[in-house]
Structures are given as structure tokens and as C-alpha cells.
Amino acid sequence: MATISHIVHPTDFSDASSAAFVHALKIALTAKATLTILHVAASHANDEWEQLPQVRKLLADWGLLSPHDPASAMTEKLGLTVRKVELEPQSPASGVMQYLSRHTADLIVLATEGRQGVARWLRGSIAERLARESRSVTLFVPAKARGFIDPRRGEVHLKRVLIPIDHEPPPAAPRARIMAFAQLVAGIDAEERLLHVGGDAPVIPQPGAPRRQLPVAVGQGDAVEAIVAAANDWSADLIGMPTAGHHGFLDVLRGSTTERVLRQAPCPLLAVPIAY
């Protein structure tokens, strides 16, 4: 992904969503993108927006704005646009899906809740469709895991990217997009580690040297356990996973693989649709 112009962050304003909010804001700031904070009202008499961390205060804490700067300073000084969109009371996942069907998002940033996987309010078959049918790159941020954005200073710590790969979907293009995302966010070329679980590993030509192959580590046993173990052992800052619908062990958008990876992931997980 060469550029990110629109980021959508669905939130229920819970503590579990705060880490995802910080990541969404910092990525939008770095990309000079529009950040849409999306919330489905619990009732027509709704004052839940007061629970959202103040964007300008957070930017001031990061040393990017003065506490007395007007709202216009976000765009004028930082090139950042933040929109708060509240949808009518309805099923949260349905509301988010309807919004995404009308507004293109380059990146969706979602909170996950440890052993519960995807946040409670987005769980179930509709949540699976949300990430799958939007065809957008989705960043899942575990609430209690080690994120790559320091919430106090806004600093980026994204140096190691673990990319599990398989023969299907073909991994070369999504691998390039994952590393481009890391470079965009971190401003440096992060170190990558390709991991294949099972038999013979896929062959990925080295960029700029097509006769050479990128090294691929090969693991055995349960795919999810191998992915999580590799992420822990290597202290990965990001897990980047190509996705292609309802088949293959890399399908992080539906079924047990999704839940198991998200429950155990020690760091954020970036899901990149093969057709992106």
C-alpha cells in the first residue's frame, strides 16, 4: 500500500479500544490522512462521545500541538483531518458495514480483547463479513498486547514484521504491501521474517534481484501455535497476514484460525486481502 488517505476506526469507547485509537491516530498523522472515528449510538439520547480521548489533547501530549491551538491546527499544522461519525442506534456491526459500503477505507483499525478475540460488539458472522467484504486492509490491535505506538509519546516502535505465508494465497504481492505499510508507518525499512508452516515453502523472488529468493523459515505442527511462538520468540512488532476468503490456514477473517491468532497474538496483526 503506497498511500493511506482514509482510515476508519470503529469504536465503542471502551478501555479495550483505546490502544486501537492511538494506533489509528498516529498512522493517520504519519500518512496525513483522514481519520474517521465511527460509533453506533446506543440510544437516541447519546452522550458517549465524552468518553473518547480528546484528539487535540493527545497531540499536545505528543508535543505536536499547543494545548491552546484551535481545531483547525490539526489540518493546518499537521495535515491531519479527524471526523467523528455517529450512526443511528442499530446493530453495531451492521452499522459499520453499511458505512463501509458507502465510504471507501484504505485501512480499518479494530480493537481486539485478548482471549475474547474481536471486540464483543463486533463479534459473530457480521463481524467476519465486515473485514472480509470491505476488502480493506485491517489492523487488529490487541488491548493488552505490546503495540507499536507509544501512547504517551506517540513514538513508533515498528522494527520487526513477521509474515506467515503459504502457497495460497500467492504471497509475493501481499508481502510487499505489508512491508510498504511498515515503512510508511515507521519511516524505516523494518526487518522481516517470512514463516511457512508445513512442507515445502513458497518461493518469493527478492525485490530488485529476481534470481534470488527471500529466505523463509519453515515451522512444523499447528499453524497458529507456530505463528504465535515465532512472534513471541522473535519479539515481533507486527504480524502481517495475507488473506483470501474461507480457505487456507492464513484465513484470519473467519473461523478458528482468526479467533486463535487474535486471542494469542502478542502484537498487532495486519490482514491484507489478496485482491487489495
TrEMBL record:
<feature type="domain" description="UspA">
    <location>
        <begin position="5"/>
        <end position="139"/>
    </location>
</feature>
<dbReference type="InterPro" id="IPR014729">
    <property type="entry name" value="Rossmann-like_a/b/a_fold"/>
</dbReference>
<dbReference type="Pfam" id="PF00582">
    <property type="entry name" value="Usp"/>
</dbReference>
<dbReference type="InterPro" id="IPR006016">
    <property type="entry name" value="UspA"/>
</dbReference>
<feature type="domain" description="UspA">
    <location>
        <begin position="213"/>
        <end position="273"/>
    </location>
</feature>
<comment type="similarity">
    <text>Belongs to the universal stress protein A family.</text>
</comment>
<protein>
    <submittedName>
        <fullName>Universal stress protein</fullName>
    </submittedName>
</protein>
<dbReference type="InterPro" id="IPR006015">
    <property type="entry name" value="Universal_stress_UspA"/>
</dbReference>
